[in-house]
Design brief:
This protein is of the alpha+beta class and 203 residues long. It has two domains: 76 residues, Glutaredoxin; 107 residues, Up-down Bundle (Glutathione S-transferase Yfyf (Class Pi), Chain A, domain 2). The chain is 53% helix and 8% strand. The chain has eight helices and four strands; from the N terminus they run E-H-E-E-E-H-H-H-H-H-H-H. The longest helix is centred in the middle third of the chain and has 28 residues. The radius of gyration is 17 Å and the shape is globular. This is Putative GST-like protein YibF. InterPro entries: Glutathione-S-Trfase_C_sf (IPR036282), Glutathione_S-Trfase_N (IPR004045), GST_Omega/HSP26 (IPR050983), Thioredoxin-like_sf (IPR036249). It comes from Ascidiaceihabitans donghaensis.
């Protein structure tokens, strides 16, 4: 299999950590594919018509894209340890969706500040996206701490990758304010070997 990736992508980071946790890292060839909405990578669109990463090329089927699809496929391939069955499964999926919503908002703020010309940037838009991050973190703190402190699953990995990305690109905005329990949980989770191995490079 081939994984089209960038080491700064938080969605790719989710996949990389899942590969590590499920012992599949050696089964995947990494293909560097740094891309953006205004600077797509040549050839990636043939794998993913949306021209986004991650994308997972398989020898026995069409290329998979969207990190949640890829993660569920790889977890199923490894025996299904990180997406539990029963009632907890729906909690895991909701937690992953919350984390990805935080990521989506954080990425939009990044694009607004790094890619849009300064005279066309819209501060109210960025503030509205940041509001989603604040709301998401508050929900994690008030509703999901017992799940985050439970057995490892993909919801926890997704949350850690989301918070890591907010630190990476928007640390000055301080998502930790009012979220002490979540901040403490993240500090411990960030010490895991696969979290340390996937810290994005500066830039």
């Amino acid at each position: 299999m081939k994984l089209y990736y960038s080491p700064t992508s938080p969605y790719v980071r989710k996949v990389m950590i899942l590969l590590s946790e499920t012992g599949q890292t050696d089964d995947v060839e990494l293909v560097s594919s740094s891309t953006s909405p205004i600077n797509p990578v040549d050839g990636l669109q043939a794998k993913n018509p949306l021209n986004k990463i991650p994308a997972l090329e398989r020898p026995d089927g069409p290329t998979l894209y969207d990190s949640r699809v890829i993660c569920q496929y790889l977890d199923d391939r490894a025996g299904g340890a990180l997406y539990p069955t029963g009632a907890r499964r729906w909690d895991t999926l909701t937690l992953e969706a919350t984390a990805d919503g935080i990521l989506d908002a954080a990425l939009l703020v990044t694009y607004e500040g790094r890619m849009r010309p300064a005279d066309k940037q819209w501060d109210e838009w960025s503030d509205a996206q940041w509001g989603k991050i604040v709301s998401g973190c508050a929900a994690l703190t008030t509703r999901w701490m017992s799940h985050l402190n439970g057995p490892l699953d993909m919801g926890q990995i997704a949350v850690a990758c989301a918070l890591g990305y907010v630190d990476f690109r928007h640390d000055a905005r301080n998502w930790r304010k009012g979220n002490d329990a979540l901040a403490d949980w993240y500090a411990k989770f960030a010490e895991r070997d696969d979290m340390k191995a996937t810290v994005p490079p500066a830039g």
